[in-house]
Design a protein that fits this description.
- Keywords: Coiled coil.
- The chain has 177 residues and is an all-alpha fold.
- It has one domain.
- It has five helices and no strands.
- Helix 1 packs antiparallel against helix 3, helix 3 packs across helix 4 and helix 3 runs antiparallel to helix 5.
- The protein starts with a helix and ends in a 6-residue tail after the last helix.
- The mean pLDDT is 74.
Length: 177
């Protein structure tokens, strides 16, 4: 039953006048008025429920709209995070490749570095020995003994050459082997 049908029935029931009530049995007139009151309450209840249902529908539409917007925002955030993650992964891959190249170069050149360090040590030793001989021979003109060379070498190594040798060997990267 719609609101219009209830309104029509109410008009009919309320249309019963006092004269009609006198013409009809007393209980029938009272029953009509009582039915009209009940229908009036039913109409008010139906109107309230209809209004409540409309409010619920509007709220549901608003919730759906807000939820859709929130989902779109979340999807956009996820896309941004995925892009940032892809950039980070590319950077990690690039750095890993560079590191692998460095490690390969270090493995290939490890023997060469050992040889270079040996040549530097030998060159420093020869320079030291030559300068020691000149220093000793120039002072006395006597034959040079091994003890004299070792003593002079120790004396010289305490100075600039020791610092130079240390600096050269310290700059070399340490071998893993």
């Amino acid at each position: 039953m719609t609101l219009a049908e209830i309104d029509a029935l109410l008009a009919k029931l309320r249309g019963v006048t006092e004269d009609d009530a006198y013409a009809l049995p007393w209980t029938f007139g009272e029953t009509c008025r009582s039915a009209a009151d009940a229908l009036d309450r039913l109409r008010a209840l139906l109107a309230a429920e209809t209004e409540r249902a409309e409010k619920i529908r509007v709220a549901a539409e608003n919730f759906e709209r807000c939820a859709s917007a929130e989902i779109e925002d979340s999807n956009a955030d996820i896309a941004r995070l995925n892009a940032a993650l892809a950039e980070r992964e590319a950077e990690v891959a690039r750095l890993t490749a560079e590191n692998e190249q460095r490690e390969a170069w270090n493995r290939e050149h490890a023997d060469l570095r050992r040889i270079e360090r040996g040549i530097i040590r030998m060159a420093c030793g020869e320079t030291l020995m030559f300068s020691t001989r000149n220093a000793i021979n120039g002072a006395s003109g006597a034959p040079i003994t091994m003890e004299m060379l070792v003593a002079k070498r120790r004396e010289i190594l305490g100075g600039f050459e020791a610092e130079r040798i240390a600096a050269l060997t310290e700059k070399e990267p340490r071998d893993a082997s």
